[in-house]
Amino acid sequence: RAELEKMFTGMPAVFTGMFQGEELSQAYASGDVFAMPSESETLGQVVLESMASGVPVVAARAGGIPDIIPKDKEGKTSFLFTPGDLDECVRKIEQLLSSKDLRESVGRAAREEMENCDWRTASKTIRNEHYSTATLYWQKKTGRTG
Q1: Which of 78, 80, 135, 139 has the highest Cβ tally under 10 A?
Q2: In this predicted model, what pLDDT tens digit does every residue of 88-117 receive, in sequence order?
Q3: Are the beta carbons of 53 and 28 closer than 8 angstroms?
Q4: In the predicted model, what is the mean pLDDT of residues 18-43?
């Protein structure tokens, strides 16, 4: 942390430490945009939390993030960029920061999208994906269908 604070000296960056519960929700909701540049995020809990707080997300199209923000939702509920393409990431952040209307509409859509998600639905989706994968594997291994 000390190294990061040194790198950001003189910039409007705040290092808050760890938040939980309502304090965490308020912190997310106070942001204008949430940037997630990780190329190896598997679940993307912070992306889910940001979207649920009505904050537009700009994230790398990698790991589990495209499962949270599928192609047909890009630009509607949040924005994805090509992993490693910092210029594209910055352009999308600037696009959101320069338009309050866009930021609000994307944030609203993100929150609405998250209202349709729950653990039961997510678990069912994962279960169905595992079943489909196992079925395909079995069919290829045995040469059978159905």
Answers
A1: 78
A2: 999 999 999 999 999 999 999 999 999 887
A3: yes
A4: 89
Residues contacting residue 68 through CB under 8 Å, at least 6 positions apart: 44, 47, 48, 51
Residue 88, CA distances (Å) to 31, 50, 91, 118, 140 in order: 20, 20, 5, 31, 40
Superfamily of the domain at 2-115: Glycogen Phosphorylase B; (3.40.50.2000)
Instruction: State the DSSP string of the chain.
Output: -HHHHHHTTTSS--------HHHHHHHHHT-S-EEE--S--SS-HHHHHHHHTT--EEEES-TTHHHHS-GGGBTTTBEEE-TT-HHHHHHHHHHHHT-HHHHHHHHHHHHHHHHT--HHHHHHHHHHHHHHHHHHHHHHHH----
pTM summary value = 0.72
Q: Residue 17 in contact with residue 81, Cβ under 8 Å?
A: no
